[in-house]
Write a structure and sequence with these properties.
Blueprint lengths: L18 H12 L5 H8 L10 H23 L11 H11 L2 E2 L2 E2 L11 H42 L3 H13 L12 H16 L2
Antiparallel strand pairs: 1-2
Helix pairs in contact: 3-4, 4-5, 5-6, 5-7
Length: about 200
């Protein structure tokens, strides 16, 4: 059957398996949920890697072109100049903008329509998890720097009373700088303050 735009039906290679099931199969193979573009390619090509109909291939090529265009734009404005790769969520947004809809359902993704933005939701969750891990890493780094700062202060107190220790400490700092700490020794006032705190703690009952 040909629609009002002269397009024939879009064929797929999933057989009786729903698109959502194919989505999960890809996730098992790769360890992550696919983008809608990856799902579309898998379900509209045969085992030989050829598209089942011209319309499906045309839509796919349009999608790939849009994704590459967007990545090129982002790479050009990237501060580090490194190539930019769109996230799954960003690719899905382009997919939903480009692929035609019929009766409110995006063509080409079958039962995935029944779980609105399922793949996008997982992609967003994955992005959130990455952000959380980065925050935890920053917190751990800050805690480590604070603790090492305390150790550095103690070493400064000891080194202030022994020139040999002071020289040894200076060399250690130059070879293995502590994040967040100066590579040199602290100024005299700070050393005296830490020294007083150290001896006060040591002498408290």
């Amino acid at each position: 059957m040909v629609d009002e735009h002269g397009h024939g039906p879009m064929l797929h290679s999933t057989g009786q398996k729903p698109h959502a099931g194919v989505c999960l199969d890809i996730a098992k193979e790769t360890g992550e949920l696919p983008s809608l573009l990856q799902l579309y390619e898998r379900t509209h090509k045969n085992k030989a890697g050829q598209f089942l109909d011209a319309r499906s291939e045309e839509i796919f090529n349009d999608l790939v072109g849009r994704v590459e265009e967007r990545q090129t734009q982002l790479t050009q404005v990237s501060t580090d100049g490194l190539p930019v790769t769109l996230s799954t969520l960003e690719v899905d947004r382009i997919f939903e903008e480009v692929v035609p809809k019929k009766k409110g359902r995006t063509l080409g993704i079958g039962s995935v329509n029944d779980v609105p933005r399922a793949t996008s939701s997982y992609a967003q969750r994955r992005d959130d998890e990455v952000t959380q891990l980065r925050n935890e890493l920053d917190s751990t780094r800050s805690s480590f720097t604070t603790r090492m700062g305390g150790v550095e202060g103690f070493l400064d107190v000891v080194a202030a009373t022994n020139l040999e220790w002071e020289s040894l400490l200076r060399n250690m700092r130059q070879q293995n700088p502590i994040p967040g700490e100066s590579s040199g020794t602290l100024d005299k006032t700070d050393v005296e303050r830490r020294s007083e705190e150290f001896y006060r703690v040591m002498n408290d009952p």
